[in-house]
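Quick start: what a row looks like.
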Amino acid sequence: MNAARLDAVLDALQLHAEPQQRQRLLDYLDLLQRWNRVYNLTAVRDPAHMLDLHLADCLALLPPLRARAPGRVLDVGSGGGLPGLVIAIAMPDVAVVLNDAVRKKCAFLQQVAGTLQLRNVTVVHGRVEDLRLPAFDCITSRAFSDLATLVRLTRHLIAPQGCWAAMKGARPDAELGALDDSVHAEVQALTVPGLDARRCVVWMLPQHSNSQSRQPLATGQPL
């Protein structure tokens, strides 16, 4: 059932996936379900709901993310690997760093990366504000923090021409209003196949990245 549902999601999003990638997505979903019984990685327990609420939600980010063609991605507060592991599976040429401050969650992320042989994944345990790593083209987050906190904690890790991609539910107007003038933000609606709920991604650029910060950050229609 999950295999057919995944195929329907990929078709709806017009995402091509090689058979190995498709199987890795299903295997990841299985690992998330099994480890969740002990590690409490997500409040969602039913595998079908995990596919719709988590996997499909993160897959919806891929078309606009692929359009930006990042070489290095940091997933902050990765938790169960959302969206970082989904990005790593779907975009094998992208180096993906998964970060979480909770050691048991990092153990899960490392287990998934090893089991699925995701050679483009690195897991880093620790508080993101303490990390000292080469700059990233894109920094993602999903249910990590408000926008201003995300920018404040990770600004030292963003490349001059890089962007933040913060996954949210409804348009976060209060959070957008709390951003200062050093960040240019645009909100793009995401359509998640089979999910009757509002989803969006907030694209943000540091304003010091020259005139490009005034250009559209996302493909498709903004909210």
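That is the whole record. The beta strands are 72-76, 95-100, 121-125, 136-142, 158-168, 183-190, 199-206. The longest helix spans residues 19-39.
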